[in-house]
Amino acid sequence: xxxxxxxxxxxxxxxxxxxxxxxxxxxxxxxxxxxxxxxxxxxxxxxxxxxxxxxxxxxxxxxxxxxxxxxxxxxxxxxxxxxxxxxxxxxxxxxxxxxxxxxxxxxxxxxxxxxxxxxxxxxxxxxxxxxxxxxxxxxxxxxxxxxxxxxxxxxxxxxxxxxxxxxxxxxxxxxxxxxxxxxxxxxxxxxxxxxxxxxxxxxxxxxxxxxxxxxxxxxxxxxxxxxxxxxxxxxxxxxxxxxxxxxxxxxxxxxxxxxxxxxxxxxxxxxxxxxxxxxx
Length: 280
Prior knowledge:
Helices cover 38% and strands 16% of the residues. It has 280 residues and is an alpha/beta fold. It is globular. The two termini are 18 Å apart.
């Protein structure tokens, strides 16, 4: 978790007095803490029409950047560096549904290795300056109690998936894993949380769907350590707020902004909450 701690310290501005122009009287409000931006730079799964990796999203986060603006620049430079890395290895650089490159890789781990190479090529230090976040969207390849890794031609159990993630966390600068297991694989999630919950951020998106009952179950069963709160999932401001409050009260970190809506509404609520967690 030290990568994100570093990011929050670096992107949070010192407290300062601000005047509020939208009230009848002058007021003092706290400075805002901008979220750490995450860049979806390599796509697989349904976003690449199953032509690439099984895991859906491979992202980077400029956790060592001194400002939000610098974080954006670092992310852009690494994205362009990844294009060069892919071309040098003979991969096409067409993009998936959410803008990340979608090459037909031989293994899922190769995607992470290529991103590490791109970080270095862009002139940054993997882990210290730019870290990796994953959103496998595992429900998409969960079939009859097993995870179908088509890219590698094998079907594995939840325990084997957890072992794979644990190995990756040792090898690569991974700090966030979102939906690492299927939304209804609660036993698998318990094992995942027990194994990696003290090392990285384990985010429930499909797992919780901003639903207070599922969030309560996750807290009760010690599943995941962060929740993705999305207004467009629950459909009401009240449900969004309750999901946020219940997750916070239960010790879950609050994570991210979903990319499905780009009209700014979710972003405004995201910034209003002012806690600095990453956002895509």
